[in-house]
Amino acid sequence: MENRQNRFIKPDTEKKIDTLLAKMTVKEKIGQLHQLGTSPVGGFEISKNEMKKLLDAGRLTKEDYDNWMSNEQWDENEGLVRAGEIGSFLGRDKDPNFYNHLQRVAVEESRLGIPLIFGNDVIHGHRTVFPIPLAESCSFDDETFEKTAEIAAKEAASEGIHWTFAPMLDISRDARWGRIAESAGEDTYLASRYAAAKVRGFQGEDFSDKDRIVACAKHFVAYGAAEGGRDYNSVDMSMQKLWNTYLPPFKAACEAGAGTFMSAFNDLNGIPCSANTYLLRTVLREKFGFKGFVVSDAFSVGECVAHGVAEDRKQAAELCLNAGVNMDMVVGCYRDHVEELLNEGKISEDTLNEAVREILRIKFAKGLFDNPYTDVESAADILICDEHRKEALKAAEKSIVLLKNEDILPLRKNAKIAVVGELADDAEEMLGCWVLGGLPEETVTLIDALKLRGIDFVYEKCCGVKTDFNREAFERAIENADIIIATVGEYRDMSGEAASYCDIDLHGEQKKLIDALYNCGKPFVTLLFNGRPLAIRDVAEKTPALVECWHLGTEAGNAICNVLFGDYNPSGRLTATFPNYSGECPLYYNHLNTGRPTSEVRHSSKYQDAPIKPLYPFGYGLSYTDYAYSNLSAEIIGDNISVSVDVENAGKVSGTETVQFYIQDVVAKTARPVRELKEYKKVYLEPGEKVTVTVKITIADIGYYDEALEYIVEPGEFKLWVGHDSTTELVTSVFVK
Ligand code: GLC
Questions:
Q1: Which atom of ligand 1 is nearest to the CA of 299?
Q2: Segments making up each domain of the chain, as ranges
Q3: What is the pLDDT of residues 577-610, one digit of tens each?
Q4: Distance of CA 709 to CAs 13, 117, 196, 666, Å?
């Protein structure tokens, strides 16, 4: 496969960079390495309207507010831009006129006219908000992964954003970690396909196109393995686990041509990622061939002091710049210390020049020297247009996972319905954990969608995510109902960054609501709105129907209603394992067998106080129809394993099945996972339709990095497990020579 990184190396561009470097002063070079927020408060910015919220909430005095907003800070930023001492802004304001204003100062008033690059967290949409990444990954749909990124790029670019801090590619096996919400789940293969699709979506063939933005593979690396699922915590793992599990999605993003990477907050085996020469130079640049630039995660250069590897900010700057971080996000260590370090010989002229070169290379590739300004008029026709809403609806429908259904769903449209729970009617909560542009007033809740459909329903909140259960309201709501829809789960800020929870069951008195439903004698369906797998064993046991609705974004309510009433046959499949109890985390399907494989036997690898199977496994998801598998066969043809299986829609409604192909390297020098996803294919089947699905798995792709970190494919038996989810028993074998 072509490594698209090589497309960044263009002789004429490199010559232009040479010319610029020869002219740049040291301060101007350091300016390219310095990124600030655009709004005036602190190092890590908040937007003007959030400033106003702080003022209105009494958390800022009027004097402070006026002082900050009095253009004093803006002037300072302009002054630094005019002096060429800032190269990038992290945009919180989404105000293209303001970006253009700063850009004009840079291009037309600074000595060398080097344009700024504006970055922002366009994680799952900009103004049109798509399902959170963990939800969208459950679609197992590469076209969706790419399409939503393409739309997000177009909307963000129309508002002056050149660069997104996405895709987030951290393999996430511990549901206590809030940022699992931003990930593509626990599987390396799926996350690698997701990575390439997202880079294609954001960047297109050429990210100088006005509708495209530069991608940023983050958080490099292994941030999802934070010990205990506690955010920002240490990560300690073997190099083999790093190379076999955590690096592949980043390699995929690099080969797909991601223009930037972001170094992670965590240490890896004691060395902070932002100060980690092995990661940033040996792995990323030498082995992956990366030619773009690395931005640190917020403050993480300065945090090397807290990590205990730098005496002070100056040494932190020395370590990180020498390790390969080009741009210091908002903490100002490079701005404050690189010149001194240069004079002291602790940073070489070459290191500084190379760091600047890589940033300028991406600025040239983005076309900023030729087209530095945003056409602010274009945004109006693009933001949250009908076409984008339609794509948001499709993505949301495909992200919904039906977890249980005892003949409750789909609902009859003329049923008398009661709806209970706070999340049924909270638009802001539907937007999920990383939203900077989505507006609640443009978001469809479940209640909105029921009204839009003219459904006969009553709604009582009855119970909030963290507030008490109101039995009186509950009794009132269900009195005349044929069926009840319960909405429970998490607020959107209970997942995402700085949202680790040691208890990932339902919070507040939501379980009282479920108990009341269980005892009321009427049928009900429970909808989950959450950003992580929840340990909801007793909820799952009590509810006759259970639908994973995540935080689905702008079209949440419409997608959920389409599933509830059968207009869309649910097709989502879990990409992260649901544990029975929080204490089982981390829990994932592609584990090693151990010498005492988990079983009913006492002396086997398990918890004595938990079932030996997860609540819901990787790849799991129900449908309104049934799929039957048969005739599995596999044979080695040349460099590939050709695998075929018949899949039949054995039910009464059409639907889309995700056929999953897992391998198992039965005996290897190093123990290998009991199963590893190596292919998936979606097939749409009418009732009674039967197709033969054939895939080719390249033999080179079923190997692993051994203890010497050599990539090897050992001869021997490989089992192929094929089916509906990671627990399928349909298996055959091939023997690799
Ligand atoms: C945050 C996040 C990172 C984000 C960056 C800029 O702390 O860790 O994912 O892109 O700062 O907002």
A1: 7
A2: 386-499+511-569, 627-736
A3: 999 999 999 999 999 999 999 999 999 999 999 9
A4: 36, 37, 24, 20
- pLDDT computed for residue 94 by the predictor: 63
Ligand 1 geometric centre to CA of 298 (Å): 6
Q: Which atom number of ligand 1 is nearest to the Cα of residue 119? A: 6
Question: Which residue's CA lies nearest to atom 1 of ligand 1?
Answer: 298
Residue of 297, 303, 328 to test ligand 1 pocket, by largest number of atoms within 8 Å of CB: 297
CATH topology of domain 627-736: Immunoglobulin-like (2.60.40)
Name the residue of 38, 121, 163 to mutate for ligand 1: max ligand atoms within 8 A of Cβ: 121
CB 40 within 8 A of CB 69: yes
Of all protein residues, whose CA lies closest to atom 11 belonging to ligand 1?
Answer: 298
What is the pLDDT at residue 39? Answer: 54
Task: List the single range of 217-231, 318-332, 368-382, 458-472 with lowest mean pLDDT.
Answer: 368-382
- Domain formed by 386-499+511-569, architecture: 3-Layer(aba) Sandwich (3.40)
Residues within a 6 A CB radius of ligand 1: 90, 121, 165, 218, 297-298, 497
The reply to whether omega before 523 is within 30° of 0 (cis) is no
Model-level pTM? 0.96
Answer for the pair 355, 349: CB distance below 8 angstroms, yes or no.
Answer: no
Relative orientation angle of helices 510-519 and 471-478, to the nearest 10 degrees: 40
66 noted as active-site residue: no
Q: From ligand 1's centre to the CA of 126, what distance in Å?
A: 16
Sheet holding 545-548, edge to edge: 401-405, 545-548, 524-529, 483-489, 417-420, 457-460
CB 260 within 8 A of CB 247: no
pLDDT over 70 (residue 437): yes
Cis preceding-peptide flag for 126 (omega within 30 of 0): no
- DSSP per position, 389-407: HHHHHHHHHHH-EEEEESS
Which residue in 312, 311, 323, 231 sits closest to 271, CA to CA? Answer: 323
Instruction: Identify the three-state secondary structure at position 120.
Output: strand
Q: Which atom of ligand 1 is nearest to the CA of 264?
A: 8
| Catalytic pick among 297, 328, 665, 725 | 297
